Amino acid sequence: MHIHILGICGTFMGGLAVIARQMGHHVTGSDRNVYPPMSTQLESQGILLMEGYRAENLDPKPDLVVIGNALSRGNPEVEAVLNRGLDYVSGPEWLARHVLRDRWVLGVAGTHGKTTTTSMLSWILEHQGFKPGFLIGGIPLNFGVSARLGESSFFVVEADEYDSAFFDKRSKFVHYRPRTVILNNLEYDHADIFPDLDAIKKQFHHLVRTIPGEGLIIAPENEPNIRDVLNMGCWTPVERTSINGAAGWNAQLVKADGSRFTVYHEGIGQGEVDWPLTGEHNVSNALAAIAAAHHAGIRSTDAIDALARFRNVKRRMEVIAKLDNVTVYDDFAHHPTAIATTLDGLRKQVGPERIIAVVEPRSNTMRLGVHTETLAKSLNQADRALIYQPKELNWDLSQLKRHASNIEICESLDQIIARLKLEARYGGHFVLMSNGSFGGIYAGLLAELR
Fold first, then answer.
1. Cβ neighbours of residue 142 under 8 Å, at least 6 residues apart?
2. Binding positions for ATP
C-alpha cells in the first residue's frame, strides 16, 4: 500500500512513517519544515520527503493519506485530498486501527515528561528482552529512532492531549485505549486549542474512561489537577507515586540533584538508581516507568538495573559541546514548568557555576504570551537568560523584564551568538531551550565559541 503523510516531519507523524515503512508499506510524505533530526531519521528509513505542500505531491495517487494535526483547510495539499476524494485518516486513528489493536498498550500522558518517561519505559521493556513497539515524541539515545513496530505484544506510546486532526478535534490519546496509563502531571498548555484548564481536564477524563477495569493508572500523589480528573469518575485501580513521601511507589533522594535515589514499593526497598540524569522531574518520570513496567510483569530490581543504562532522549539536556570551560546543552523546552525543573536540576548538579539560559518561546502557548509571569520566574535559577524575540512573534517580550532582573531580550540570532561569545570568557553552562530548530543557531554558535 502507498501511504502519503502530510506533516511527516512532526515527531508523531514521522514516527508513524517509520512504523508504516516497517510494516512493508511504500511511504512518502510532505512538510513545510524539513530539518534534523526527524528529516535524517526518515531519509535513513528510505522514505521520500517532499518539501512544501502542493497538489502534485499526490501524484501518483496514494492508497491512503494520513493527515497531521498541524494541517488545516486552505492548505493546497489538504484541498487536493478533499477535491479528489482520496481516502484519508488522522494519525492517531491510523495508529489505533493498524498497530495498537490486540496489543498491550502502555500510554504516557501529561503536560511534562511524556517523551522521557515513554523512552524510559520502552527501554526497560527492551532491556528485559521484550522488543516492544513504541512511538515517542523524540529520539531516545538508547534506540536511535523515535518509533518502531516491535516484536512483542507490548506497545508504548506517548499519549498526547493535542487534537487529532482538523476533522477530529478529540485529543490523540482518546484513540489509543491503553491498558496501563501513566498520568504524569497536568497544567494549562496548548492555548491555541484549549480555552482553559478545565477543557484539558475534560479530555484527560475522556482518556480515563477508555482504560479497562483490569488495567492500571499510575499518578503522582501530589498533583491536584490529576486528582480532579480522577474525581470526575474512575473505574480503574490507581497506584500513586511520590518523592520523599509515603505513596505506594516512593523515591528517596540520595543526592539532591536526583542522580541517585532509592526506590520503595509499599515501604520495601527495591534498589537504588544511579544514573547520569538529574532533576526531581526525572526521578518522578523514572518512578512512574518502574511502576508501569511492574504492571507488565517486570520486577522492580530489573527495571532499576535498566535505568542505570538509560541514556536519555536527544534534545533533553543533551550536551552538544564542551569547549574549554563552557558546556553547551540542547534542551527541548515548551512550557515554563519544564524550563524551571530543568534549570533546577542543573543548578543542583553544578552548584555555583554560571548558568546562561537561552530561550526561544516557540510553542503555541508561549507564543501567545499566556505564561508571561511564569516564564520569567522559570528562569530564576539562571545567572542570565537571553530570550529570542523574532519579528513574527506577536507579543512584546520586554514584559518579561518586569518580573525578573536577569533577562535580556535579543532580536536576532547574531545578537545571541555575540552575547554568548562574551559570556564564554567567564565559563559556565549554556542551555539552548526551544521546541524547534532555534533558527539553526547551533552550528554558528559552536563555530564562534571554538
1. 119, 123, 126, 309, 310, 311
2. 110-116
